[in-house]
Write a structure and sequence with these properties.
It comes from Nocardiopsis sinuspersici. Pfam families: DUF2071 (PF09844). This is DUF2071 domain-containing protein. Helix content is 12%, strand content 51%. With 250 residues, it is mainly beta. The protein has one domain: Acetoacetate decarboxylase-like, CATH 2.40.400.10. The protein has a nine-stranded mixed barrel. It is globular, with a radius of gyration of 17 Å.
């Protein structure tokens, strides 16, 4: 994997508004009560974890790893309701040879066995059947996840407080949330899957506490450092449309 060029390190942040989908969405979901916790990392640390033909996307020379948790109250696949679930994922940020900038999921914990099985089979996404608990009382939010298989697997527990609304998100907030697709490795190819939703309404979050090994289990080490960015959103409605075009070599 080549080191990112100086031009790549100065790459502007993603578009604030999503481009239109290439066709009707095959999957519709609502993502609600979402927390984004992010840590900065050197791009060479995350490059080996990305799918073939992609490289780390960077902002001011740094890449980021995110711990993101949210509720999915509704899911419709090809017009058929398939239920909701809670999800917790660990994710990185990628760009391919077409300049498509997206998310790479290292782990995706969800408390719906049939949705986990379908997603792993059809897309290769690293979903795992887990116990997920997401709770809120006023401005205080808490969550926990425990992986069912393998027994004794990764787990995490966190708590935070929602603060003031961000009317003008800055470059870092746009970098980690204005993502209109994902890269995933499946059936021997790196695929690009488009995601469409309105820009996230964002709030600052405070008083973060976390215990667990979700990032370490995904191959990322941040030690005892606090997140450099902590955000919360009431949520968005999404549409997902897979692309038939794989990612080219970088």
């Amino acid at each position: 994997m080549q080191e990112p060029s100086a031009h790549a390190r100065r790459r502007p942040t993603p578009f604030a508004d999503p481009p239109p989908l290439p066709g009707p969405p095959l999957l519709r979901q609502s993502w609600r009560e979402t927390v984004f916790a992010h840590w900065a990392l050197p791009p060479e640390q995350v490059a080996p974890l990305l799918p073939e033909h992609t490289r780390p996307d960077v902002l001011d020379g740094l890449s980021y790893v995110g711990l993101v948790a949210f509720r999915v109250p509704t899911t419709t696949a090809a017009g058929i309701p398939v239920g909701g679930f809670g999800e917790v994922n660990v994710r990185l940020y990628s760009v391919d040879g077409y300049g498509r900038r997206g998310v790479v999921f290292l782990s995706m914990d969800a408390d719906s066995a049939h949705n986990v099985l379908a997603a792993r089979t059809l897309t290769g996404l690293p979903y795992m059947w887990s116990d997920v608990s997401l709770r809120s009382r006023g401005h205080v939010h808490a969550g926990a996840v425990r992986r069912r298989l393998p027994r004794g697997g990764a787990r995490g527990r966190w708590r935070f407080t929602v603060g003031e609304r961000m009317d003008h998100p800055g470059p870092l907030e746009r970098f980690v949330t204005a993502r209109w697709g994902l890269h995933t490795r499946h059936a021997g190819r790196t695929l690009w899957i488009r995601v469409h939703h309105r820009p996230w309404p964002l709030y600052r979050a405070h008083s973060w506490t976390y215990q667990g090994d979700l990032l370490r289990a995904a191959g990322v080490h941040v030690g005892d450092r606090e997140p450099v960015s902590l955000l919360w959103s009431p949520g968005v409605a999404t549409g997902v449309c897979p692309s038939l075009v794989g990612a080219p070599r970088t």
